[in-house]
UniProtKB/TrEMBL annotation:
Transmembrane segments: none annotated. Binds 16S rRNA, required for the assembly of 30S particles and may also be responsible for determining the conformation of the 16S rRNA at the A site. One of its GO terms (molecular function) is structural constituent of ribosome. The lineage of its organism: Bacteria, Pseudomonadati, Pseudomonadota, Alphaproteobacteria, Hyphomicrobiales. One of its GO terms (cellular component) is cytoplasm. Keywords: Ribonucleoprotein, Ribosomal protein, RNA-binding, rRNA-binding. PANTHER family: 30S RIBOSOMAL PROTEIN S14, SMALL RIBOSOMAL SUBUNIT PROTEIN US14M. InterPro entries: Ribosomal_uS14, Ribosomal_uS14_bac/plastid, Ribosomal_uS14_CS. It comes from Dichotomicrobium thermohalophilum. This is Small ribosomal subunit protein uS14. It holds the Pfam family Ribosomal_S14. HAMAP family: Ribosomal_uS14_1 (MF_00537).
Length: 101
């Protein structure tokens, strides 16, 4: 199980990214618009830099929903490989069985 603080920090980052998503997208569009004057684009970049770092979507770490494990993560299922195998062995995942030969 991952440290509770790490899981909570990640949740905080998700909330912040969602909160600032619209503002961040607007500033990025202004900064990348070549039709605008360079001064205006630069000001947009400065405003973007003043936003909290954790509001960036890039800083979010994908973690297992059950254990918080950061590695071996399946995006489609939002589970780590360890929990996926355990749940499949218990018959909790429909259509999935542990292979044996």
């Amino acid at each position: 199980m991952a440290k509770k603080a790490m899981v909570e920090r990640n949740k905080k980052r998700r909330r912040m990214a969602e909160k600032y998503a619209a503002k961040r997208a607007e500033l990025k569009a202004m900064a990348e618009d070549t039709n605008r004057p360079p001064e205006e684009r630069f000001q947009a970049r400065l405003k973007l830099a003043k936003l909290p770092r954790n509001s960036s979507k890039v800083r979010i770490r994908n973690r297992c929903e059950l254990t918080g494990r950061p590695r071996g993560y399946y995006r489609k299922l939002r589970l780590s490989r360890v929990m996926l195998r355990e749940l499949a062995s218990q018959g909790q995942v429909p259509g999935m069985t542990k292979s044996s030969w």
